[in-house]
Amino acid sequence: MLEDKYKNFFQNKVEIGDRELKEYYDMHRNDFIINKTKLYQIWIKKSKNINGKIFTPEEISNIAYKELESGVPFKKVSDKYSQDERNLDGGYLGYVEEKDLIKELRYVVDLQEDSYTKPVKTDFGYFIVKVGSKQLQKNDFADSKNKIVDILRKEKFDNREKMLLKENKVNINKARYSRLYKLF
């Protein structure tokens, strides 16, 4: 807790000039290119009565997948089976970054356009995800400036902390005490 207060104090006092920000941006341009993928989903999270028989989420996801495999359009299958309360038109999620997906679904951004997954079990239910078009979004310097400020402030704090520990001959194995650090 004390470290966090010092860190916030230190980072708020650090001045970073435009020249330093621009140099960082120029050296790390590729870090500011964002891959986005248009995604559609079928989300099944609870059992459902279909024609007088109760089906589990797993069974429903398998039925939906079989319909897709037989050529039924994704939109039609999604509208029929998806249990997302947002009533997404055909399961349309929009353009999504990999980091915004739950870990079990992050691989979908590497799939080819117009392909879809088999049912994927997650803590939230079963998902079938269809991949649409892909786009690269390149953030220019102005769009990236605040992010660069945060990165450089963190770097400066980390360097200062290392220097102080070295000067005072203090060795803290944070990995060894990670559970203790999580308490604060």
Outline of the structure:
This protein has helices spanning 2-13, 18-27, 57-69, 74-81, 141-167, 178-183; strands at residues 33-44, 48-50, 53-55, 92-96, 120-122, 125-138.
Account of the protein in words:
By secondary structure, the protein is of the alpha+beta class. 41% of the residues lie in helices and 22% in strands. The protein is built from six helices and six strands. The strands form two sheets. The protein has a four-stranded antiparallel beta sheet. It has a two-stranded antiparallel sheet with strand order 2-3. α1 crosses α5, α2 crosses α5 and α3 runs antiparallel to α4.
Beta-strand content:
15-25%
Walk across the major sheet and give the strand order: 4-1-6-5
Shape: elongated
End-to-end gap: 5 Å
Q: Output the number of helix runs.
A: 6
**Helical coverage, percent range:** 40-55%
Largest sheet: 4 strands, antiparallel
Query: What's the number of extended β-strand segments?
Result: 6
Q: Show unreliable segments.
A: none
- Arithmetic mean of pLDDT: 84
Question: Which short descriptors sum up this protein?
Answer:
184 residues, alpha+beta, 4-stranded antiparallel sheet, two-stranded antiparallel sheet, 6 helices, 41% helix
Sequence-ordered SSE layout with sheet pairings:
Elements: H1 2-13, H2 18-27, E1 33-44, E2 48-50, E3 53-55, H3 57-69, H4 74-81, E4 92-96, E5 120-122, E6 125-138, H5 141-167, H6 178-183
Antiparallel strand pairs: 1-4, 1-6, 2-3, 5-6
Helix pairs in contact: 1-5, 2-5, 3-4
